[in-house]
Amino acid sequence: MFGKTISLFKLFGFEVKIDLSWIVIAVLITWSLAKGVFPHYYGGLSPATYWWMGIFGALGLFVSIVFHELCHSLVARRFNLPMKGITLFIFGGVAEMEEEPPSPAAEFFMAIAGPLSSILLGIVLYGIRFIGQAGNWPELTTGVFSYLSYLNFLLAGFNLIPAFPLDGGRVFRSALWAWKKNLKWATRIASRIGSGFGLLLIFFGVLYIIRGAFISGIWWFLIGLFLRNASQMSYSRLLMSKALEGEPVKRFMQTDPVSVPPAITVESFVEEYIYKYHFKMFPIVDDGKLIGCITTREVKEVPRNEWSQRTIGEIARPCSCDNTIASDTDAMKALSNMHKRGVSRLLVVDGDRLAGILALKDLMGFLSLKLDLEEETL
Known about the structure:
378 residues, alpha/beta, CBS-domain, 3-stranded mixed sheet, 9 strands, elongated
């Protein structure tokens, strides 16, 4: 879902990050508030005041979204559901779950926590704005609180739409799940509704563009496209999880992997391994034991005129948790690790011995066959 992210801070143990796309939207929101919204409702103020109102409004939006997602995460923690953290991106924010909720009740309470928190925050901000008006606070202050109050009510209302994976869609899925006792069926139905709602937003976006409201139309179109893709991806992710559930990586690994002896020269390694097999990383094995890893990065650090004198054992590095996995690990966890670390191969180990190589293409090939035979697509 995300591109490059920047870690900001930790809140109650949850890492808060922003996708680089959030910076773009923060600038656009600040500009639109300073040049359009606040001048329209609060005339007669200086340009600098409008810009300060725009900045505080954008910061308030940031806090509001973090608060919304934090409440999701705190409830998820209450149900022992692992959470990766909170990430803000161009379309808002998301509390990143590592797995599906354990029960319909957990899904319901985790989902409803977000909109309820936004409604509560909206009421609190409206109360502050009311106190400020009664106390003759500057319009800069009351205007920002008024805007943020309205924004939180809007955030709650939009998220309550029963279109998966919005919060309302998750509440709807929890009801279907409790009714049929079937998470896959509930997710399929909720995802279809979410996908259909995304198409509706795309239609309205195109309609707005045709009628001349280009900026509004583009936003509706992009939000609809994002929602449609997110709903379909959520269902596909569940299918993958169920297909790989309980399957150890040793079922999918190649048991006779290409390995490199430590005594060969760098020159021989390049010619006989890299150019032959086209991998970027190889395990180094000596007498059946995994003693290290060698990648093209280590090779590039050796001057070309030393390739014939230096051995692989001299330049190799210990294998790390980024490229190794135990043979009894769940295959879904292995797939998640590959995605998180941006790799397509993992070394499967039993203690200090190399048991095999797990390749992404082997996992995806199994998934494709199993889903084609057993599952109904969207």
